[in-house]
Amino acid sequence: MRNIPKHIAMKLSESKSDTSIIANLYKSINHNYRRLSNTSSLLHRIPDMEIPSMNIADEYDIEKTIAEGCFAKIFLAHHRPTGTTVVLKAIHTELTTLKEFVKEFHYNYQLSHHPNILSCYQVKFQTNEYYVYAQEHAPFGDLAANVGANGLQESSCKKIAEQLSSALGFMHLKGLVHRDLKLENILVFAPDFSRIKLCDFGTTTREGILVNKNNKTWISFLPPEVLEVVKNERFICKSSSDSWQFGIVLYVCLIGSTPWKSADWVRDGKYAAFMKYQKRETTKIPENFRRFTPRLLRAFRRIFDHNEEDRAKVSDIMKYMKNKWMDNKITTSKSTSNIASNTQQQASSDQDSIKYINHRESRNSFDGRLRARRMTSFGGLTPEPAPVSGVDQDSIRNKVWEWLESNDLNRHDSMDDVVDFSFWNKSESKSYQYSKRESIIGACSTTTTTAMTLTTTARDTSSASSGHRYK
Questions:
Q1: How far apart are CA 434 and CA 150, in angstroms?
Q2: Max Cα separation, the chain?
Q3: CA distances from 321 to 22, 137, 228 (A)
Q4: Sign of the dihedral through C-alpha 250, 253, 255, 257
Q5: Could you tell me which residues come within 8 angstroms of residue 166 by beta carbon, excluding any fewer than 6 positions away?
Q6: I want to staple 124 with a disulfide (CB 3.0 to 4.6 A). Which of 31, 133, 205, 467 is the partner?
Q7: Are 434 and 456 in contact (CB under 8 A)?
């Protein structure tokens, strides 16, 4: 080392120092990865629990039954020893096993530290009929009780989407899939929807394992790959199914109803129409998606991708939070609009049509000769040629008068233009001379005589030979 220059020795020492720092960094990363892996493994490892037996009435006073289903009951109860109000979820022992109950309680308890997942207390017991565990109480019920027939405001839907995507994203990072996302499983803790929480983890499963079809979820919420599964057939559980159900929940919050009855393009016309639009086979936006802005339509096209591998993640909705979602230019549907507004719109439309017709008829782009031709031509007076005996002279006279009043020929056009019928052929020279003489006399007297002369001329024209032609 004595023969090595000092500046080279410094570089070697610095290199050695950098190498040690990188080695320590890799060691720290590996340690953290192993710690996260151990945490995930602990989360997925369902422990063996002893469930004590007791009666609900021993410590709780049941205030009311919040909800009741085939598998469980939800009670609002008062805990006498602590003086607190809690919710007891009681699952029928005949319809579930102890292992399934422990799994639901375990997942709910381990995930409840997330702010948008329902808190679960370390309280569990069994009675003669139920397996019971305690949860926190949601004072404003679930989303199903808060979403009306016309949906919610856009601002409220954005709050719900942000919080729900956070809860589901947290579960997906932990390798869990909820599998039963619907309005009844989203609880409301604030009237402005600034605080909601996800609940009911009875069907929550580790991602990537084989599962059976969940019969608890509504058919309209099932993604197509799950809907197509035959009874008793198993399939791989994936987080993309949560993304699909998340999109359905978001749509219902915005509109008030589901976009289709089932994701079956053969049996459901609404879903088939959206699939054509989603696959860009047509540029026509489905009718039930026309209230959304192009930006939100893009989000729905990604969320409702038929291919589960290409489907957007729940966290991708955050990219669209700053964009406008609802298009206010689109009017409401006929089912939600009243008759008065429809009548007013129709009247306005009729007035616009009248304005356009009047504007078109008032244009003076053609001269007096063409006006006279238009007035006296047989095709302009009657829809089809007819024999002389079939011509309605009163209707012809009325049309001539209407034309004269609307165009005011006696003030804007010369008499030569009115009576110049030289566009008839030579075989009609007598009729032409007669009509010209009568027209001049009528012009000198009154406008009434002019109208009668033109009527006579039109009648003579209808009786002329079929060989006459127009220039």
A1: 73
A2: 136
A3: 39, 29, 33
A4: positive
A5: 114, 115, 116
A6: 133
A7: no
Residue with tokens 């869990």: 176
Give the Cα separation of 215 and 171 in Å (integer): 22
CA distance 102 to 95: 14
pLDDT given at position 273: 95
Residue keyed to tokens 């729940």: 314
Q: Which tokens sit at 460?
A: 């003579």
In the block, residue with structure tokens 């002369």: 453
Q: How many CB atoms lie within 10 A of CB 60?
A: 20
What is the CA 331 to chain-centroid distance, rounded?
A: 13
In the structure, what pLDDT confidence band is assigned to residue 377 with cuts at 50, 70 and 90? very low
Catalytic residues: 180
Tell me the two tokens of residue 413.
Answer: 């056009």
Q: What is the pLDDT of residues 24-52, one digit of tens each?
A: 655 555 555 444 444 556 788 888 888 99
The helix/strand/coil state of 385 is: coil
- Whether the CB-CB separation of 381 and 459 falls below 8 Å is answered with no
Task: Indicate the pLDDT class of residue 375, thresholds 50, 70 and 90.
Answer: very low
Q: What is the pLDDT of residues 195-235, one digit of tens each?
A: 999 999 999 999 999 998 877 778 999 999 999 988 788 99
Q: Are 217 and 193 in contact (CB under 8 A)?
A: no
Segment 41-69 shows an average pLDDT of 89
Mean pLDDT for 342-346 is: 43
Strands 205-206 and 176-177 come out as: antiparallel
Instruction: Report the Cα–Cα distance between both ends of the chain, in Å, rounded.
Output: 116
Distance in angstroms (rounded) separating the CA atoms of residues 117 and 119: 6
Q: Where are the alpha helices (DSSP H) in 178-293?
A: 224-227, 240-255, 269-278
Phi, psi (degrees; rounded to nearest 5) at 253: -65, -35
Rounded-to-integer distance, Cα 453 and Cα 433, Å: 12
Query: For residue 41, which of 49, 33, 52 has the smallest C-alpha distance?
Result: 33
What pLDDT does residue 357 have? 36
**Number of neighbours of residue 457 by Cβ within 10 angstroms:** 23
User: Which residues share a beta bridge with 188?
Assistant: 196
C-alpha to C-alpha distance for 234 and 209, rounded to whole angstroms: 10
Whether the pLDDT of residue 365 is over 80: the answer is no
Residue 406 in tokens: 């609307």
Residue type, 164: L
| Cα distance between residue 220 and residue 208, in whole Å | 24
* CA distance to 15, 27, 44, 252, 338, per residue, from 289 (Å): 61, 52, 40, 12, 21
DSSP code at position 386: -
Spatial contact of 127 and 54, defined as CB atoms under 8 Å apart: yes
